[in-house]
Specification:
Elements lengths: L2 H11 L3 H8 L8 H14 L8 H4 L13 H5 L1 H25 L7 E4 L6 E4 L4 E4 L1 H28 L1
Antiparallel strand pairs: 1-2, 2-3
Helix pairs in contact: 1-3, 2-3, 6-7
């Protein structure tokens, strides 16, 4: 049996009689269809009297499991989406920095590429250039750290919805 279903059944079984009857009163559409079905089975097992909820209304799109709808793929991959969006924003910021610095048109200026840390420097009167591995490593670490943080934040916020 599915772990989520078993967990839901255990939660419904642990409800006191008053809360169990509240789930079955039929006035709310706050509960998923599966929750109401498990609550009916638990109330029957306990011998509680309740009014029969309108199951056709309860099986409406408002009470179905939201992870089974069209947003299922989005919800399933929320961490990856948050991670990739954050990396894309940082890559875009580096590209904008590159375009801005390259368009300066100064022959004897030092041109520093990279956001937030400089990972490449070019220019100067003598034409010096060089790759900064420490700046590159810090940029990659910040990008991955920010991506992980936003991905986890998206996943935590998704659980609360």
């Amino acid at each position: 049996m599915n772990d989520r279903r078993q967990q839901l059944m255990d939660q419904v079984a642990a409800l006191p009689d008053k809360e169990l009857l509240h789930v079955l009163d039929g006035k709310n559409s706050d509960y998923r269809f599966e929750t109401i079905v498990y609550a009916k089975a638990e109330a029957d097992k306990r011998g509680l009297a309740y009014s029969q909820p309108d199951m056709a209304r309860l099986n409406s799109p408002l009470t179905r499991d939201p992870t089974r709808g069209p947003g299922r793929i989005f919800r399933k991959h929320i961490f990856a989406i948050g991670f990739l969006v954050t990396l894309s924003v940082i890559i875009l910021a580096n590209y904008v920095n590159y375009v801005h610095v390259s368009s300066l048109g100064c022959d004897d200026c030092f041109l520093n590429y990279g956001f937030p840390y400089t990972y490449y420097q070019a220019g100067g009167y003598a034409g010096g250039y060089g790759l900064s591995l420490s700046g590159l490593a810090l940029d990659v670490a910040i990008s991955l750290g920010a991506g992980l943080a936003v991905g986890l934040l998206c996943k935590i916020c998704n659980r609360r919805i």
